[in-house]
Write a structure and sequence with these properties.
single chain, alpha+beta, Arc Repressor Mutant, subunit A, Chorismate lyase, 2 domains, six-stranded antiparallel beta sheet, two-stranded antiparallel sheet
């Protein structure tokens, strides 16, 4: 962003040496191509942090696309947090901050997707009485009946994670069947969620292995572990299932990215 003698912000023009073009014959939509071009320009420093992007009309002329396509492209990188639209002022490149980072559960997803090498062993399934945190998580009264399922997941014959799940005891609900389905985790974390759930929340907490957990997972009692809690809601926005996965940091390392990644 440049400042003129009058103190007003001066918009940076599209770099004149930019030879990238939008290929109208490509299978990739024009707005997606333009969004990628803008990402690369930001990554190269052509648009520094805090600078203002050219107006969407200028981008449309530069790359030979419609104004709507330019608006869609800018909208994509705005959703990604790379730029920020300011009403009446323009679109500005965001400053890189750690708060803009995101973490993924790639290791967990890859294991759950590897069905050929994944085994699920149900350790326990029963009807239990709600108490403590389960009452709060599922919004039920103490001693309400709940379905309880405990599973051990093995990947390539080695223990990977222990999963505990609770669900409201409503015999007519499809959640009951899903809780007893040994492939439920694949649906939740890999395939986008089974029917019957509308949305969910995940929370990652530090914890340690109890003696029993360590024995099941082949780890050390008292050793560090991750507890990935999950609450899933039905189509009526009522919490329907609550539980957690217990896994070692070695089996589920967390990775994060900050800044502009072009791939």
């Amino acid at each position: 962003m440049e400042v003129g003698s009058s103190g007003w912000f001066r918009e940076l023009s599209t770099p004149s040496n930019n030879s990238e073009t939008v290929d109208k014959q490509s299978h990739l939509p024009a707005y997606a191509q333009l969004a990628q071009i803008l990402r690369r320009a930001i990554s190269r420093g052509s648009y520094p942090s805090g600078s203002r992007l050219p107006a969407e009309a200028a981008l449309a002329r530069q790359y030979g696309v419609s104004a709507m396509t330019a608006r869609q492209a800018v909208g994509v990188i705005a959703e990604e947090g790379l730029v920020r639209r300011v009403q009446g002022s323009g679109t500005f490149v965001q400053k890189l901050t750690v708060t803009a980072s995101s973490f993924d559960l790639g290791a967990l997803r890859r294991v759950l997707a590897d069905q050929e090498n994944l085994k699920v062993r149900i350790l326990r399934s029963s009807v239990e009485r709600a108490a403590g945190i389960t009452c709060q998580a599922l919004g039920v009264a103490p001693y309400s009946p709940l379905i309880y399922v405990e599973r051990l997941l093995l990947h390539r014959e080695k223990p990977f994670t222990l999963q505990v799940g609770y669900a409201r005891f409503e015999p007519e609900s499809p959640v009951v069947e899903m809780m007893l389905d040994t492939t439920v985790l694949t649906g939740l974390f890999v395939e986008g969620g089974p029917s019957g759930f509308k949305k969910g929340k995940l929370r990652l907490l530090p914890t340690s292995f109890s003696e029993r957990d360590a024995q099941l997972l082949g780890d050390t009692p008292g050793g560090y572990a991750f507890r990935l809690e999950h609450i899933f809601y039905d189509t009526g926005d009522k919490p329907a299932a609550y539980g957690w996965l217990l896994v070692s940091p070695e089996n589920m390392p967390l990775t994060g990215r900050v800044g502009v990644w072009e791939e």
